[in-house]
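For reproducibility, we list the full input for the pantoate complex.
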Amino acid sequence: MRVIADIHKMQSQAGRWLRQGIRVVLVPTMGCLHAGHLSLIQRARREAGRKGVVVVSIYVNPTQFGPKEDFDRYPRDLKADLALCRKAGVSTVFAPTDQAMYPGGSKERFDTYVVAAHLSQIMEGHSRPTHFQGVTTVVAKLFNLVRPVVAVFGAKDWQQAVILKRMVADLNFPVQMIISPIVREPDGLALSSRNRYLSPGQRGQATVLWRSLQHARKRVRHGGVGAARLRSEVGQLVHEQPDARLDYVEFFDGETLVPVKTVHRGTHMALAAFVGRTRLIDNGRL
Ligand code: PAF
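The corresponding predicted structure, in tokenized form, follows.
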């Protein structure tokens, strides 16, 4: 397995792969890899086939964190990540530095951002106003540096996946986008690098996101339910947890993110909640 930190080396390698007709599949990550990432890597390996290459990028992207968010304490463990990638059959890890990705600092000399004008304003974007412009910008940069034909993202960040698919379509990136299913703990908690912030007591309460999804699924099994009513039921469920606070819960069309007034089977639901200081998200088709 090759580890590349230098963006010029990455770009030259990508050019060679392109000229040799080698199929490149990219899994963009922020590291701290867990079983959810491993499922993305497995999917990428299937897509790459025997002759293709799987590139995993590991980069905690500063521009997608707000000033009061957890950028500084976001877990980083490159050594463990590299060991996992090696074991998972990754061909190349691309782990650039901040200085290389945003020369002169992300706020000073770097001046060009990719922004999904409308989709980035709602749900996660409402709570984290500059988050998605950081995500779309860094993913556009990664696509230009690695030049994948396929990229694999996780369904846990559903809004991110929809926005990135829209970016690829709107800006004509020649990349096939694959969204791979959420991996969950046995009790339903979606795997996330942020789960490690939870104390044992909070860890138990964190299943309320999964239980809220299950509650909504049950409620719409026999017909439509008003979104406002379901929102208040989910709010109540979250409220019953002493350390939890609902940030938002939304019901919408899974492809377009357009909100619905009446929730049916097949409607998509997404929610974010704080458990202690840890902000968790989850989503699913009802
Ligand atoms: O989903 C993530 O881990 C990040 O948002 C991504 C796509 C790697 C961009 O930094």
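The radius of gyration is 19 Å. The chain is about 35% helix and 20% strand. Both points were considered when choosing residues for closer inspection.
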